[in-house]
Amino acid sequence: MYAVVRIRGTVSVAPNVRKTLEMLNLKRANNLSIWPETEQVRRMFKEAESMLTFGKLNDDVLAKLLEKKGEAVEGEFDYKKTLAELKAGKTANQAGIVNCFRMNPPAGGYERKGVKKHFNMGGAFGDRKEKMNDLVLKMLKY
């Protein structure tokens, strides 16, 4: 399961990048959405890479995310049932949750060189791989 966070705003965004962000359900900064591991999703991440950060989410962090920030599309929300459905391969919409988590800014901020440099160069955007779990936990602290 991939987690993707939008880290920059909407000023001076190319139309194709804006459309990609809309398809990823990332309408404003510090929004997070979860996606299955497919090649189409990876290509969408690469299209808007300078506006977001992404990486693989482990099961423990996914459970905390659903428990604290999960919302049902309709009816009551049971995060344990939803977590089991997501592990079975369903998408967030098929599991009946809203696939846009409104997160707080990370406690302690993003990395030292800011949101305009790639993660490999000490910045914030791009592929974080397994370190995405640390960022999500920092965003859940409040």
Characterization of this structure:
By secondary structure, this protein is an alpha+beta fold. It has a single domain (2-139), classed as Ribosomal Protein L30, Chain: A. Helix content is 35%, strand content 15%. It has six helices and five strands. The chain has helices spanning 15-23, 39-47, 59-69, 79-87, 92-95, 132-139, and strands at residues 2-6, 31-35, 52-56, 101-102, 126-129. The protein has a five-stranded mixed sheet with strand order 4-2-1-3-5, with helices on one face.
Rounded mean pLDDT score? 88
Radius of gyration: 14 Å
State the CATH class. Alpha Beta
In CATH, the homologous superfamily goes by the name Ribosomal protein L30/L7
Number of domains: 1
The share of residues in helices is: 25-40%
Number of strands: 5
Name the helix and strand elements from N-terminus to C-terminus, one letter apiece. Answer: EHEHEHHHEEH
Structural class: alpha+beta
Can you tell me the overall shape?
globular
> What is the count of helical runs?
6
Named CATH topology? Ribosomal Protein L30, Chain: A
